Amino acid sequence: MTSITIGVVDDHPLFREGVTRSLSEMSGFNVIGEGASSDDAAVIASDNRPDIMLLDISMPGGGLSAISDVLARSPTTKVLMLTVSEDVDTLLDALQRGAMGYVLKGVGSRGLAEAIQTVLSGTRYISPTMSAKVMENSLHGGTSDKNSLTPREREVMDLVAQGLSNKHIGLRLGLQEKTVKHHMTQILSKLGASNRTEAALQWRERR
Description:
Layout: E1 4-9, H1 13-24, E2 29-35, H2 38-48, E3 52-55, H3 63-73, E4 78-83, H4 88-96, E5 101-104, H5 109-120, E6 125-126, H6 128-139, H7 151-161, H8 166-173, H9 177-191, H10 196-206
Parallel strand pairs: 1-2, 1-3, 3-4, 4-5, 5-6
Helix pairs in contact: 2-3, 4-9, 7-9, 7-10, 8-9
């Protein structure tokens, strides 16, 4: 049986060592790279191309920003966030950026192994605690409530629904393209949409 190769990136040495040791003691897992920053994650992705990359969120360079770098350097790698953050917006942001899973650090070794195997199969994995929070937010209109958008976000969505690109939306509203991208990240989180096309369809239906 071929081992699942894993990269572990977390800026807390003791925690990182604990995760590495736990995985190494279980059959079928092989940690082939360790790091403490988003730069380290990018290097591991380029040099080792692991099957799974475990990323902390709060580390030098930011775990969320590391997601796109990892996937750009190793498209076949599945990114799994391993974090203490129970913020729903952070979870949605991670998934929007391409992460396949979101696991809270209180998880045991068996639970982590299950999450790794799940995302490796191509299925998203979210810790049960976080799944419940996302559901609660949705039921209370948090992540899918059109009314939760700011006036500026509504302006952006009106133009997205017309098919305009971020660049053209910026020109129309007098905003920098990166500002429009930031608004889109917030909008997708609030609408619970996975991409701008889905968001645009939702927006047209609700108007």
